[in-house]
Amino acid sequence: MSLNEFSLIERYFANIGSARYPAILSLGDDAAVVSVPEGMQAVMSIDTLISGVHFPESTPAADIACKALAVNLSDLAAMAATPAWFLLSLSLPDFDANWLQSFSEGLKQTAEQYQVELIGGDTCRGPLSVTVQVTGLVEVGRQLTRDGARVGDKILVSGVLGNASLGLAHLQQRTVLPESIKDLCLSALKRPVPRLELVDFLGRHASSAIDLSDGLVGDLGHILRRSRVGALIRQADLPVNHWIKQNEAYAHALNGGDDYELCFTLASKFWPAVVSWNLDNPDCLLTEIGEITDSNYTLIEGNQAIDLNDWHGYRHFD
Asked: Is 154-307 the same fold as 5-139?
């Protein structure tokens, strides 16, 4: 049995998620209508995930749905914005009821977990790709950007770096992971966790932020360029798993990408807030990895200083 695109949307994508500020008009019309509460601004982001580029072709449909929404929510977290609504554009090579049911269930689970409402979208026939546009809300003038880092600020990251890159290397048979970390790394790749719990903390304390999609070195470099500053980071301070440490495989943390942790800067005076956060949030620890300098971009590896100015993260058109 096949469905036209309107029946498909009605069957698989109606009533997905809910927002603190429900849409005035959502699925079923030419466009959605929302109302931005007084004193708030809308923050929007969009990402496309393409089969074979952003996820292996064998990835389960529910994992694809979760990742497609999560990576956009991660962008909102980096801007200190709270998610509200999202749009979905789905390109499918064929109608597959089982695939669509699994995708829909994964999308609904993720949307409900993070309180974000699906309010519209589109489906078409073509190579498998998923585009999500998400809108969040932030108090007027309180959005966090990449251009606020100042000399002397501490550089911090959330969580653990490199796990998703290791998971991909394992799937591509470039690395054989021990059973003790294999599932952890595969989960980090397939189901990234947007650090929305940090939205309020970042809004009150951070001077700049970015989510780590293309690797720490490249993404932190975006902050440095926008803020017109330099940085010094210490490899020994990177929060990584024991396998990376034992095998000195720090490239997964520095350049691997797909972490979707947050990298941010803050003034030293806010360090007590970091200590307090870590005591209260053991599942989202914050780690200081370096500091903002007036120039240069340097990695300290043991006794060696490595120039990072020519390093960059993943780029689609290289």
From this structure: no
User: Could you give the percent of the chain with pLDDT greater than 90?
Assistant: 77
CA quadruple 74, 78, 81, 87: dihedral, nearest 10:
-40
Q: How far apart are CA 2 and CA 86, in angstroms?
A: 26
Rounded Cα distance between 302 and 41, Å, is 45
| Of the candidates 193, 205, 170, 187, the residue with the CA atom closest to the CA atom of residue 80 | 205
Provide the pairing of β-strand 154-158 with 262-266: antiparallel
Candidate from 118-132, 219-233, 303-317 with smallest mean pLDDT: 303-317
Sheet holding 286-293, edge to edge: 206-211, 262-266, 154-158, 286-293, 230-234, 297-301, 304-307
| Domain locations along the chain | 5-139, 154-307
How many other β-carbons are positioned within 10 Å of the β-carbon of residue 308?
22
CATH top class, domain 154-307: alpha beta
Residue-level pLDDT at 317: 36
CATH superfamily to which 5-139 belongs: PurM-like, N-terminal domain (3.30.1330.10)
Is pLDDT of 124 > 70? yes
Q: Grade residue 37 by pLDDT with cuts at 50, 70 and 90.
A: very high
Mean pLDDT calculated for residue range 264-290? 98
Neighbours of 142 (CB within 10 A): 14
Count Cβ atoms within 10 A of the Cβ of residue 293 and give its class: 0-12 exposed, 13-18 middle, 19 or more buried.
Answer: middle
Sign of CA dihedral 61, 63, 66, 71: negative
> What does the alpha-carbon distance between residue 277 and residue 272 come to, in Å, rounded to a whole number?
9
Q: Report pLDDT for 2.
A: 52
Distances (CA, A) of 224 to 208, 293, 309: 10, 9, 10
